[in-house]
Design goal:
There is one protein chain. The protein has 722 residues and is of the alpha+beta class. It has 22 helices and 20 strands. It is elongated.
Length: 722
């Protein structure tokens, strides 16, 4: 392109006029010479020659006038051309800038100066890069180099800074060329594209918002080819509803994934849409998934073509309504169940609105003796109640009160006297509750005939009175029986204690008889046999004496053992600790059972009967360990508790047992040991504790009060009873 300023235009115009005048002068001189006007001699001319010469002058004058007119026309055209050039260059809507190869401004038009908000003359020889924002200067230098290295037109878009500090987006488009002096220049067009950039930015933001809305929408959105039905674009939600990936969905048509039963209606609507009969349509349909499951969704279709245009694409919006469909199905089933329960209920049920019946079940029709449901519904509620209730209040007033309370959200449950259509009266149990039916709030009433219940209650009341009288008699008899049992139990426990003491005395007496009588006789016989042996005799006689001697020795040993078992001598002469040591040694020698014993330091019991009881109890419990637990070790501890009671504990880690089962067998055949021991301890005012479980060993504890404390607890006392 060529760019000049107005001074250059005026100079060119003057040069053209000078050249034209010179050309006309040269043409006139040539014509004068042609007709012989210009001659070197002064020879006179004849009249004819003069007339002919005058004629020629007139003709030349006319030609000159015509040429002058042509000159004026061309001058006018040149001036018009100059004005057009000014309008096109200086007043152009874009800036024209001529740059040197160093990027200096050589010439600009008025628009460029206005864009840069600078004086036109002050722009001369200013580097154009100083008007480029710092962030884009490198971009401009790359553009300038490409422009100088190529004969092609190059363009770039960047931000330029005005003299007042503001900036604008500019498009720079230039071509390399040569100036009048042959130097390389760049002819550049400068355009303000700020509005376009802002529009592009707004468009990009709008597109980004649309894309965000498209991708993040809670509903599925798809753009579909209206001719083939193939998906052209889908958002993520549409893929989730169809249970397909984006790639799988883009390879399908909407017909391929539609439920066969819904496809015909969908295609029919699409034909109407393409024919222009409808502008949009909505329908509920289903996707059929490969596993046979279905997804219900609401489909809304809108065309992307204008009326009269050829159908190309359409937009489908799908909303998953599977849960809503399931809820609707559940609601329908619930209503059906409610209706079935309503109709088949054993109680009369009715619905009321504004104090009037609106519905009832068959039981209500039968209970109130009406011929039909419609008859019951048309009757006013007060017709089914007597004028007053049993408490004397008006039925109408009471009914209004109950109905108002139920309508305000407070369920009512009360007894009521009703009347049937034939006038008969019956007692009923009534429930009133406010229920929602769509946008209405109704009162649901349930009426249960309690005639039989009332009769039963009356019978029960009479039976209760008789039963209370019988219970009182039984209670008095039971109290008397318990008193007798308690008295007998106290006597039995006292007897048990006395039997134990008698048994111990008898043991001592038998032991004394054995020791002082039988054993002494056997010892004397043994001495006499020894004397006989010393006198000498035949061999046969001696053998008999020896055999008799052995038998007597064995009898003495058996007697001594029996004496020790009946009444160990250590109890009377050596004390409790020695008696316990003897007991340990005796069980180890006789049964091979190892017994560990721990007795509190300086522990002694003054009461002989209590010492005997402790020794007998320890013997019984240790023997039970050998007999039942299969343990190789028994542990015995004997100490005194803070309250003065004597505590004996025997434990083992043997097979253990179930205490409840053993307790249930006490007193039966083979179960008198534990039973008699428990009775003995309790008769002394003590306590008997058993802790055991199968496979867990056992621990049995006896707690017996001392003689002073036992004396304070008479039979029948609370401590003894416990």
């Amino acid at each position: 392109m060529t760019a000049r300023n107005s001074s250059g235009q005026d100079a060119s115009h003057d040069a053209d006029l000078a050249n034209l005048a010179k050309s006309l002068k040269t043409s006139a001189e040539a014509m004068f010479e042609k007709v012989g006007i210009i001659q070197n001699d002064a020879t006179p001319k004849s009249p004819d020659e003069m007339r002919r010469l005058l004629r020629s002058f007139e003709q030349y004058q006319l030609e000159l006038e015509l040429q002058n007119e042509e000159l004026r026309v061309r001058q006018a055209e040149l001036e018009a051309s100059r004005d057009r050039y000014f309008n096109l260059y200086d007043l152009a809507p874009v800036g024209y800038v001529t740059l040197s190869d160093q990027g200096l401004i050589l010439e600009t038009n008025a628009t460029a100066a206005i864009l840069l908000r600078a004086d036109r003359n002050s722009l001369s020889h200013q580097p154009i890069v100083q008007f480029v924002c710092a962030e884009d200067q490198q971009h401009y230098l790359i553009h300038q180099k490409a422009l100088l290295d190529s004969a092609e037109t190059h363009a770039c878009e960047l931000r330029m800074r005005r003299n007042d500090g503001t900036w604008f987006w500019a498009r720079i488009e230039g071509t390399a060329g040569r100036g009048a002096d042959g130097a390389p220049v760049c002819q550049t067009v400068l355009s303000d594209i700020t509005d376009r950039k802002q529009a592009d930015l707004a468009l990009n933001e709008s597109e980004a918002r649309f894309r965000a809305i498209f991708e993040q929408a809670a509903v599925g959105i798809a753009m579909i080819d209206s001719t083939t039905g193939r998906f052209l674009s889908v958002n993520q939600r549409a893929c989730e509803i169809a249970r397909l990936t984006r790639e799988e969905m883009m390879a399908e048509t909407f017909m391929a994934i539609s439920h066969p039963d819904d496809l015909a209606a969908d295609l029919e609507n699409m034909e109407k849409l393409k024919a222009g009969l409808i502008r949009t349509f909505s329908m509920e349909k289903r996707y059929l998934h490969p596993d046979g499951s279905i997804t219900w969704f609401n489909l809304t279709v809108s065309p992307m073509w204008q009326p009269g245009e050829t159908p190309t694409r359409h937009v489908s919006v799908v909303e998953d309504i599977t849960e809503r469909k399931a809820a609707q199905k559940a609601l329908l089933q619930s209503r059906m169940k409610f209706r079935a329960l309503f109709e088949n209920a054993g109680d009369a049920i009715f619905l009321m609105e504004d104090g009037r019946f609106v519905d009832c079940n068959t039981r209500a029709v039968a209970l109130f003796g009406c011929p039909s449901r419609d008859y019951f519904v048309r009757r006013p509620p007060y017709e089914f109640s007597p004028p007053t209730q049993p408490d004397g209040r008006s039925s109408l007033d009471c009914a209004h009160e109950k109905l108002a309370a139920a309508a305000s959200g407070h369920p009512q449950f009360f007894e009521w006297t009703h009347t049937r259509l034939d006038g008969s009266v019956f007692p009923a149990e009534v429930t009133l509750t406010a229920v929602e039916f769509g946008d209405k709030v109704l009162l649901q009433g349930t009426v249960r005939d309690i005639t039989e219940r009332k009769r039963t209650q009356q019978s029960l009341a009479a039976s209760d009175a008789a039963l209370r009288e019988t219970n009182e008699l039984l209670a008095r008899a039971n109290d008397e029986l318990e008193r007798r049992v308690a008295d007998r139990t106290a006597k039995l426990r006292a007897l048990t204690a006395e039997i134990t003491r008698v048994e111990e005395r008898e043991r001592q007496r038998v032991a004394e008889v054995l020791h002082e009588g039988l054993l002494q006789l056997l010892a004397a016989s043994l001495m006499q046999l020894a004397k006989l042996k010393s006198r000498g005799a035949d061999e046969g006689f001696l053998e008999c004496l020896t055999s008799a001697e052995q038998n007597i020795n064995e009898a003495i040993q058996v007697g001594r053992t029996l004496t020790y078992e009946l009444c160990p001598p250590s109890i009377d002469y050596l004390g409790l600790e020695a008696a316990m040591d003897w007991l340990v040694q005796w069980h180890r020698e006789k049964f091979g059972l190892k017994v560990e014993i721990r007795i509190e330091t300086d522990f002694e019991i003054e009461d002989k009967d209590l010492r005997v009881t402790i020794i007998r109890a320890a013997h019984e419990l240790i023997f039970n360990v050998f007999k039942h637990s299969k343990a190789e070790l028994a542990s015995v501890s004997l100490d005194r508790m803070p309250g003065g009671e004597v505590r004996l504990t025997v434990s083992d880690k043997g097979t253990g047992f179930a205490p409840d089962l053993v307790r249930s067998k006490e007193g039966m055949a083979g179960g008198f040991g534990m039973f008699s021991l428990r009775e003995l301890v309790e008769s002394l005012g003590g306590r008997f504790h058993v802790l055991s479980a199968p496979g867990k060993g056992s621990r049995i504890t006896l707690i017996i009060p001392t003689a002073q404390r036992a004396a304070a607890s008479a039979p029948g006392d609370s401590a003894t009873e416990k």
